[in-house]
Fold this sequence. Notes:
This protein is α/β, with parallel strands linked by helices. The chain has one domain (3-309): NAD(P)-binding Rossmann-like Domain (Rossmann fold, 3-Layer(aba) Sandwich). The protein has helices spanning 11-22, 47-53, 76-96, 137-156, 176-181, 184-191, 199-216, 234-239, 241-248, 252-259, 274-280, 288-296, 304-309; strands at residues 3-6, 27-31, 40-41, 59-62, 101-107, 124-126, 160-165, 218-223, 269-271. The strands form two sheets. It has a seven-stranded parallel beta sheet with strand order 3-2-1-4-5-7-8, sandwiched between helices. The longest helix has 21 residues, at 76-96. It is globular, with a radius of gyration of 20 Å. The N and C termini lie far apart (44 Å).
Amino acid sequence: MHILVTGSAGHLGEALMRTLRAQGRPAVGLDLVPSPFTDHVGSIADSSFVERAMAGVHAVVHTATLHKPHVATHSRQDFIDTNITGTLNLLEAAASHGVAAFVYTSTTSAYGDALTPADGEPAVWIDEDVVPVVKNIYGATKLAAEDLCRLFHRNQRMPCLVLRTSRFFPEPDDSPAKRNAFVDANLKANEFLYRRADVQDIVEAHLLAVERAPLIGFGRYILSATTPFTPEDLAELRAHAPAVVARRVPGYEAEYARRGWRMFPGIERVYDNTRAREALGWKPRYDFSHVLERLRADEDPRSPLAQSIGTKGYHAGAYADGLYPVES
């Protein structure tokens, strides 16, 4: 199966291209930015360019996007052009070429304000039934693109799966308060409990989605590391996270103490990946327990794939706040 990967110069796009090439599977990369993994250089907002790139393609994995850190540097129209018009161009071309599977990379950020419980409320259990409440142009355009995928399945009968990914980027957190309060490795380890995944697991879910899309037709799935928490933990988790983690992952405190690390005092949301595991046959390996095991052995908890890709950043320049400009 000939696979077109958009965003091939980005984290996930490169990870997919590296994996497909290593497996000897025919794949071509498309991106606005030249890279060793990009075969077609151009914009997905250009329908003629997209049509040419679609020739001979049997499946599309669409990872190209403007991200949340671009909200401060790009206009709302830029987001519409890339995230909505670009996705529409790809769907139109894929449908006209009879593509057998279209996999769209969305984001858990699309849930927006639904991720934050009111004061005094328990943490929120986030699964596919939660209704998104967008809070910025990034989330609005990602949700619109998801619905375009649903529309093309409904009207053109093209198999389309939407994968809402949690954090897998290696860059420092975009919150200055969190960067100042926790060392980066501590912060990311904590996030594997409820809102982070390794890019290796994300790649495997996408490739499974390519295989399963013709059988499923259309579906939306959350991709995140498997949490040790249950809905029964939500009330205590919001205010007393260390106690819940100690109960669900016994012995974590010793390793954290050895490193001088801390658990978050409270956790406000938990991503549930159950439906993705069941529908796709996905078996994510990189979870909080895996991270602890590697840390105890003084090894890098990231997958070899994540280590190979490294940090890319989101902008060409630097800012007073490091990688991230201040959002207006």
